[in-house]
Design a protein that fits this description.
The protein is α/β, with parallel strands linked by helices and 204 residues long. It contains six helices and four strands. Helix 3 links the parallel strand 2 and strand 3. The longest helix has 23 residues.
Length: 204
């Protein structure tokens, strides 16, 4: 992936400063994909739907349960791909930076989708801070704002605080689906509560 690829959200994932959609680096702090690569190194092994990079947080039943929820989400929103990545951040690392790096470096979606045609979602759950970060592609930004994403990621906190990470992830997935259905109905009255197919990419 070229270093000059635009940041995949309209605010810098590192400092939160507003950005132009075509910006390749944050105009406030200089953060970009190249810096993220330097910080985090090689891309980790990952699954399309669920990744437990710690190899310790999820039981097989929990893994399959989350995967099943994500596939149900995709049945409701067939142009989207929702992925969940569990990790344990090192001291000094920012979960927002790491999520941005994963989102831009891993091929979670089978679609060759860029900018307004990117309907991907990535939820990163950090065992160290017991928190989560939710990132979406440009195609979903008309429906979910940055404050929406922060609030939705927070829906898992009660479970995370009890080290019930699978329960927290499932709560967030359910909340995202409900909120997205609500926003689509508001913006597209009379249409099914799905990501609009007219703007979505076709599978390769």
């Amino acid at each position: 992936m070229p270093v000059d690829q635009p940041l995949v959200e309209t605010r810098c994932p590192s400092c939160g400063a507003p950005q132009e959609t075509t910006a390749s680096s944050c105009t406030a702090c200089g953060f970009n994909l190249d810096l993220a690569k330097q910080r985090f190194g090689a891309i980790p092994r990952y699954g399309i739907h669920v990744t437990d990079s710690t190899e310790a947080v999820l039981t097989l039943s929990e893994y399959r349960g989350i995967e099943r929820r994500l596939k149900q989400f995709e049945n409701q929103f067939p142009q989207s791909r929702f992925s969940v990545f569990f990790t344990a951040m090192l001291p000094g690392q920012k979960l927002e930076d790491y999520t941005f790096w994963l989102f831009n470096s891993c091929h979670f979606t089978p679609f060759d989708s860029k900018l307004s045609n990117n309907f991907a979602l990535l939820l990163t759950v950090d065992l160290q801070s017991r928190s989560a970060c939710l990132m979406i592609g440009y195609g979903l930004e008309p429906y979910l704002s940055a404050s929406d994403l922060e609030a939705l990621a927070g829906r898992g906190l009660p479970a995370f605080r009890k080290a019930r990470y699978a329960d927290g992830a499932r709560a967030i997935i359910a909340a995202v689906g409900a909120e997205l259905r609500k926003r689509i109905r508001e913006r597209e009255p009379g249409l099914p509560a799905r990501v609009p197919a007219s703007a979505a990419p076709s599978p390769s």
